[in-house]
Amino acid sequence: MKNSNLLLISFFFLTILVGCKPSDDKENETCKSSEGKVAIMPLGASRVQGNRPVFESYRYALWKELINGNWSVDFVGTQTDSSHYDDYQNYCFDDDHEGHSGWTSKQINNAIGDWLKKTDTPDVVLFSSPGGNDALQGETLASILPNIIAIIDKIQAHNPNVTILIEQMAPAKSIFMNAEITAAFE
To answer: Which of 12, 85, 127, 181 could be disulfide-bonded to 93 (CB atoms 3.0-4.6 Å)?
Structure first.
């Protein structure tokens, strides 16, 4: 009887020890924040917002490249991404942005002042395809440019030392594209 009780107690403690073993599972680790010194606002429409898994925003790939380059950055904006992004080099993806799918330059112009008040002041703004949705809706360049200029003016009034990088408008992959809209994009 004594040996069977000792065997049972040994088995019980062995089970507890094995169950308490530290896990090698990466999901149990917490990732570090990559928020850093340079505040970057990704600004624009669907190319900024993305719609995983249908199409990717450039933000995740850019963020990984910035981590690789040892840049200390903080993406800022009032929007956060509800999609899942894998951690990278033990950092959690910084999913803040100011991407609004389908928005025109007029809508962005009307809202940019509020967004700037509600978030950290950006040092850099990545202005993606300004006016792309306007062009898809048949707006002329003459009607788009005043909004883009006003957006830039508002950003510079908020931070006179801001760097604004404007993406060259990429051709849309859309059923809306025709010869006239393609010419406007070019």
So the answer is: 85
